[in-house]
Every structure is written in C-alpha cells, then in structure tokens.
TrEMBL record, chain A:
GO cellular component: membrane
Top-rank lineage group of the source organism: Bacteria
Lineage, uppermost ranks: Bacteria, Pseudomonadati, Thermodesulfobacteriota, Desulfuromonadia, Geobacterales
UniProt name for this protein: AB hydrolase-1 domain-containing protein
PANTHER family xref list: AB HYDROLASE-1 DOMAIN-CONTAINING PROTEIN (PTHR30035:SF1), LIPOPROTEIN VACJ-RELATED (PTHR30035)
Coiled-coil stretches noted in the UniProt entry, renumbered to this chain: none
Automatic annotation (TrEMBL), chain B:
Family from the record: Belongs to the MlaA family.
PROSITE patterns: PROKAR_LIPOPROTEIN
Keyword Ribosomal protein attached: no
Upper lineage: Bacteria, Pseudomonadati, Thermodesulfobacteriota, Desulfuromonadia, Geobacterales
Pfam (any one): MlaA
PANTHER family: INTERMEMBRANE PHOSPHOLIPID TRANSPORT SYSTEM LIPOPROTEIN MLAA, LIPOPROTEIN VACJ-RELATED
Annotated signal sequence range: 1-25
Listed name of the protein: Phospholipid-binding lipoprotein MlaA
Domain of life: Bacteria
GO cellular component: membrane
Keyword annotations from UniProtKB, A to Z: Lipoprotein, Signal
Gene Ontology BP, a term: intermembrane phospholipid transfer
Amino acid sequence: MFYSRLFCIVCMLLLPIPVLALDDRYGYPIQGSHEASIIGTPAELMPELPARVPTRQLVLDLFPDRKKPPIFFYDEGLRCTFAYQDKKAPLVFIVGGAGAGDRTDKLIVMTKALYQAGFHVITLPSPSSANFIVSASRSSVPGDLTEDAADLYRAMDAAWKQVQGDIEVSSFHLCGYSLGASEVAFVAKLDEERKLFNFGKVLMINPPVSVYNSATRIEELMKQIPGGAKKQGFFVNRMLSKFSQFYRYGNFVTINEDFLYAIYTEKLFTHEETAGLIGITYRIGMAGMLFTSDVMTNSGYVVPKNRVLRPTDSLYEYFMVSTHLSFFDYFNEQFYPHFQKQRPGLTKQQLIDAQSLKSIEGYLKSSAKFGLITNENDFILTRAELDYLRQLFGKRAKIYPRGGHLGNIEYKDNLAYMIAFLQDKETLQ
Amino acid sequence: MRAFQRLSGLIFLALLLSLSGCATTGVTTQAEIPARHSISEFNDQRFAEVSDPWEATNRSMYRFNFYFDKYLFLPVVGGYEYITPTFLQERISGFYSNLGELQNFSNSLFQLKGLEALSTLGRFVTNSTVGIGGLFDPATSFGLERRNQDFGKTLGYWGADSGPYLVLPVFGPSSMRDASGLVVDSAITYGVYSAIDPFGSSDYSFEIGAGITTLGFVDTRHHQSFRYFESGNPFEYYLVRFFYHEKREIESGKRSTKE
C-alpha cells in the first residue's frame, strides 16, 4: 500500500516533464477538443494500411428462443467482424463506443492496423447498439457495466466457439474505446473468475471514469445550443444552411474530406456550435438505444405499449421524440426504475457509482494487464478525473496532449502505441 | 455500358414495385396504452425531414435491397474481390470511371459550365490515351480534377425541386428528380454506345455488353462500404435519407434548408 502510494506520488511528480516534451513531438494537428472529435484524423496522417484483410462476418444466435419484434426483421443475430491470420497468432476482441456497430470506421481502421501487426481480430457491437440490445442483451436494458460486460463475455465466448476450429490462437487480449473501454475493464474482471480467456493485455482508449458524469458532460454540450436541447431542430436546420452556403460560395468540387477540413480551418462553426453538433450526434445515437430498448421490453416509453410495429411503418415521430429526451430522462424514467424493481432499496447514487471505474479500482490498480490511452483535452473527463486516471494507471497511462474525445485514435502514433502495448513491447514509454 | 446498368435497374423497378406492397402484418393481441412521451410535448422544428409521401413503399424497397445485397450482390462482390488481385481491381475501376466521364462531360455542357466541360474532356482524352483506355489516371496528377455530374444535378442546377424521396431497387437512395436524371443519362450513354457499337462485328456482342454491364455493377458496389441495416441505429432509414437529400441539394448548387 505504501509503495503504491509512493509510486503514485513519484508518477505525479514526474508526469509534467514527459508530457511537456511530448507536446513538441506529437504530430496530431487539431488543437481544439471539439474540433478534433468531429474531424478525427486526416487520411494522410493515418498509417499505411493493407488494402485487403481476410475477414468474415460472424452472426451469433445467442437466444435461439427469443421472438424478435417484426420491426427488427433484419436482425438475425449479433454481427461481429472477424479478421484472421493463416498462422498461429494472438487474438484481440475490440468493443467500440456508445452505439457503435461491428463495422464502424474506427473499428475497421483498428482492425486493419492490428491485422497488419499479426493479430487475429474480432470486433463486437457496443452493448448500446440496436443490434446488441436485440440479439445479445439478456435484459435489453443497456447501460449497466456489470450486466453489459456479462452479455459481452457470453458473446465473446460464442464468437470464439464459432471460429476456434479455423484458427490457431496464442493468447487473448481486449481493447475498447469510449464506453467500450469501460466495458472491457468489467469484462476482464469477469474473466478473472470464469477464466475462459485469461486475457493477457487490456487496453482502454478514452474511457469515461464515471459513465454518468461523462454523459452529464455531453448533455452540457447541448446547453450551448440557443434555447437549449429542446430547440435542437432549429439549431440543426440553421447549421445545415450555414454548411450549404459555405459550400456554395467556396467553389468546392464535392463534399469530401477537403471540404470538411476547410470548414475547420475557416472556422465556419463556433466552439459552441461545434459543441452543439457533437451533442446532437450523441443524442441521435442515444435515441436509437432508448427506442430499441423500449420496443424490446414493451415498456411504453416512446412507443405505445402493446403496439406491434411493422417493417414498413414510419418511425419518424419516435425518432423526433427520442432525440428530444435526455440521458437524465432515460436514467430516471427507465434505467433506474428497471434496476430498482430487481433490487429493492437500491438508491440512485448506488446505481450511478456502479457505472464507474472507481467501483473496480482495486482490481484496475493491481492488475498489470491494463493500459490506458487518453487525451489531456478529452471533454468527457474533468480535470480531476484525468488526474485520477493518471494516478490509477501510473506509467501504464499514455496521455496525449490533444485529440479531444477519440479524434486521434486513428493517428499513426496512437495506432503504433496500441499495437506495441498489445504486443507487450518493452519499448513502451 | 452504364446504360445497360441503368436499364436493367429500371426493369428491376418494374418487377419489384409489385412486391413492394407486401408487408408483414403484425397481430396486436392486447390493447394499446399511450406512450409516456409523445411528439406533442415538444415545441421545436423538425429536422432531418425530407418529402417522403411513399415512405412505406420506400421502406419495402430498402428492405428488398437488404435482401438483394445479402443473397446475391454481396456474395458476388465478395467473390470478385477474392479472385481479383488488387492491382487488377484498380484498373477495372479506372476503366469504368473513365467511361463515366462521358456523363460528366455532357452534364457540364448542359449546365453551361464551359471550363468544367473542357477539363472533363481533357481528363477523358488524357486517360483514354496516356492512361491506356482509363486503366490509369494520369489526368489527376496533371491537375485535372474529376467533377462528378449527372442529369439529376443538371435539373437541380436549373432549379428543379428534388421531388419526393425514392429508394430505387439496387441503386438505393434517390429522388423523383434524380431517378428521372438516371433515365436521361442512361439514354444518352446508350445512344452513344449504339452509335459506336464497339462489339458490332462480334457474334457475341450482346453477351459482351451484358458482361461489361454486370462487372460495372460489381465494381460500383465494391467501392461502397454501405451495408443496409448495419449502422446499429434503428433510425438508419431517416439518417440515410437526410444525408442523401442534403448532399444532393448542396452539390447541385441549390439550397433547400429552412431558415
């Protein structure tokens, strides 16, 4: 105990120096946190990636007896993407951020980079994506890290059973970003008891410390919209006309990366407007989550209870209603009551605390398998939370000076670090 | 060649409009209870709204495309990607992309964009000769940028409204205006093709034409990473509709958003 505290203090004393030095050498160009999160990494700053990677889509039927509502007719099971080597190799499971499917752009880039470095890869949809809620979640009420991790673990087990005859695996590893990073931490903990995989390395990229606090921070971005989140429609339409006017007067050839980059360099949107746009994107993702959960549990939240939606029915009104509901609406009206019913006496604070890395900090601190990548200016973290992560992970934390939330995840240095960490290279700084 | 693609697409349309009415009917056994939240609570502008009076039909077509992809198109594209070396794939794409310059050229003329038409013509000539029939694209490195044009954009440029949103079989998101544009572009390409008749002397000119058309379809899909219903969001239909519509409005030089 004394040593670990001493270790933390030493780390804190030493940290500012390498970070300052790094600032000069780090080539990721976008300074603003919101801007970086929207623009991501310009293509020329990504590493050279292979044009083709042998992949196969896995469709896992985790609940053969589950009767799926007709509106989800296309959902035939949990879709995972599997990239494989033709020789014995380590396997990495990757879980994306809130709402991400198995083929989200970021996951595809990470998969290619890992494949190139000699890994087998399986990407899984986020437990908050519609596909997961319909096909892999036992409760179909997403958001509880312990339950979601258990569902993910079952899915990983099923995915592994499906491919185990075809490939040779030397070791298993985990990687997740954003909400997925918190989820894989809980998956790793579960694996310590169940021991199906005995994960070697677990890499968390841009995790929230507390999911509730980070969601609060994102909801605060919506407050920068004139009139607040309830006037998002006015805001989106106004931003859109700004966007098209800029295109019209700028003599652009097409809407492509150059155009989007010009929006950034010309500062078309203010910092507040950029914040609002991030908030809207997040709300659209959350709308999908709460609608899917509502249909699956028939709880009458945005869709009338007992209504059976057909594949050709319009969902537009549900879409509008759902984007106008906040994270707090979902938490207070759906999420908390669901768990309170199962565990009488559960307080809100207890439920909030359970969705935090702090609830498993002893494990995270003691296990050498964890690594962390995040950014100084990731807006889902407060200064105190960033310091907490620094203390918790010590030299296993890699904190870049900029990149916002996930903006630099595809940047070549970041991907090189990810690979080196999972390969357990000694050269890691 | 694109004419073939488009004509066969239209035949599909005719075939499938008959199917599009069939929707699975769910049976409600219990009485409905109003939802906790409804649209009436919110006093805001709607967003991502696009004129879509035939939404049910469009959704059926969207679903058809999902199955078409799943059982035919994507397996074929996957097979193509598996057997064809990347180098050859790129040459094939170059060939089709060069043929597409004809449509870019005619439409930049229709829009009286002289410089753009000249640049497109320059691209076509350069890539057809130095680039060996379009297999390579030296024109871009000479600074002649590709300008994608089509008759839908031409109509938009001259002020035609997009009209209702349409989901076409195989082609996917479109609009009344863009679908008409597709017919015109196809007719022009078909006319040029018939006039030149490159395989007229062969006994197998139809088979060759059909083969080139099919490969063109495969090449197009090979470049699209989009997969129906795989976004992870149940409102995908609206997001796709919105992005398609706005991109077309903006790129055709018209503005449609509400203030």
